[in-house]
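User:
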Amino acid sequence: MVVDKDLTNYKDLLDDICNMYPWGADEFATVKYFDSDKKTYCDVLCDADLMNMFDAHSIDKVIVISIFLMNIIPDVPIIPAHSSSLCTGWPYIIGYL
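Assistant: Predicted structure:
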């Protein structure tokens, strides 16, 4: 998936991901990315976090994100059986312009 960082907002990113990998009405998705400078996974919860994610990968312009699905009620993660990410989310690669 390729996105334009100047035109993409957090909601649009989630909508694009949901169109490719639909989740149910009783679920919501969270997104994390690995920041190699901080050596940690960072949450993407809003437009500002999305811009921080793009800034953290401004040289290579390729980002591996992990997508987590959560039940709205109760708060129990849905972990896919095919997950290979250290975060146990769905690994997904995006590039940006």
